[in-house]
Amino acid sequence: SDLDLLCAIGLYAEVDVKEANSALGKLYERHARFVVNRLKTLAASYPAIDPEQLTLDTFEKAFRHAGGFKDQSGNDADRQRQQVRSWLMEIATNLFHDELRLVKNQVALLTDAVENLPENPLDDEAAPYVKTSTLRKIDEAFVALNEQDGDIIRTYAYYGALGEDGGNVPSEVRDGLMRRYGLTATALRQRKKRALDKLRAQESR
Prior knowledge:
mainly alpha
């Protein structure tokens, strides 16, 4: 039963890791699909959050806390199954909210960095490009974007050209982005704008 598996994990975690891991593997086989599907629903609006990884984290935490599980099923198998799943989802939901706070903090860093970019960093001979510290903040927040959008925003940010016209990006750099992603100049501008809008919308959630 699920209770037997949790008891085995709690009993053997400190003295027989192989036995405890075997019990955890069986628990994972029984409930992982349920947990990951619930997490996919929670994370549907947050592409930066990986439900598969959170599921692994959930069972890792369950391994550490199995000894604290309190059975209230009265030896009813269905109630026990529901109780174990509720317990796992409590862990999973807490991990999800922790991850969501992290993502929002990263998005806030990016938005703050974008809003404080110099209009034309090339005018300052002492700082021909955006300051390294600003770029670092932007990099830390890029978890909220897919790889292509992140590349586009990072390139424009490097040249201080996240405004509407993007005028400071050298033509060869802009042309390189267009070739790389099969975009026209108009489509590239639209892609950049949507990526920025996505970040700001995610921050406001």
